[in-house]
Amino acid sequence: MTHDNLPGRPSGPVRQLRLVVEAEDYDEALRFYRDAVGLPERAAFEGDGDARVAILDAGVATLEIANPAQKRMIDRVEADGTPSARIRVAFEVDDSAGTTAALVEAGAELVAAPRETPWRSLNARLHAPAGLEVTLFQELETPEARQERPGFTAP
User: Fold this and answer.
1) Alpha-carbon radius of gyration of the chain
2) Does residue 26 fall inside a structural domain?
3) How far is it, in rounded angstroms, from Cα 101 to Cα 106?
4) For the chain: N or C, fewer Cβ within 10 A?
5) Which residues are paired to 133 by β-bridges?
6) Residues 6+ positions from 116 with CB-CB distance below 8 Å
7) Pairing assessment for the beta strands 132-139 and 121-128 based on DSSP bridges
8) CATH number at residue 54
């Protein structure tokens, strides 16, 4: 059986997106993302010289490309204009307010409390372990409803 024919694997030229993050405090980052955020551990490996990596399952992965004007607009809407990092990780959650509170309790620093955006999601921004800037978002309408509004398109 070839890699292309493995059951449950998406077809196409790219099958998975992995964001690889160096964490000075590996144990803190693992505790935060695996235990507090709730990303299940898919695999973990150890090597010589205390080399360690954990691969955490974050569900569906997308790559969001935004131009500078869009980034500034998101910063204005999501965090009162506080500039975001060039790369920001966004997690879709079922309860943005509850998850934000839990992650602040687990060690994240609140940048912006949950707020409704013009694209009808409830977004919060955090500084999290391993130097990541994180947006939590809770969708407040279906993609089909969003597509009916001006400014939104889908292929």
Assistant:
1) 17
2) yes
3) 9
4) C
5) 127
6) 122, 140
7) antiparallel
8) 3.10.180.10
pLDDT tens column, 12-46: 788 889 999 999 999 999 999 999 999 999 999 99
Over the stretch 92-146, which tens digit does the pLDDT of each residue have?
999 999 999 999 999 999 999 999 998 899 999 999 999 999 999 999 998 787 7
Q: How many beta carbons lie within 10 A of that of residue 103, not counting itself?
A: 24
152 lies in some domain: no
Residue type, 134: V
Tally the domains of the chain. Answer: 1
Tell me the two tokens of residue 76: 């204005």
Q: Where are the beta strands (DSSP E) in the chain?
A: 41-47, 51-56, 89-92, 109-116, 121-128, 132-139
Return the DSSP state at 3.
Answer: G
In a domain, 136, yes or no: yes
The single-letter DSSP state of residue 116 is E
pTM: 0.86
Q: Is beta strand 132-139 parallel, antiparallel or unpaired with respect to 89-92?
A: parallel
- Asked if the structure places residue 154 within a domain, the reply is no
Cβ neighbour number for residue 147 with a 10 Å cutoff: 11
Which range of residues forms the domain containing residue 34?
A: 3-147
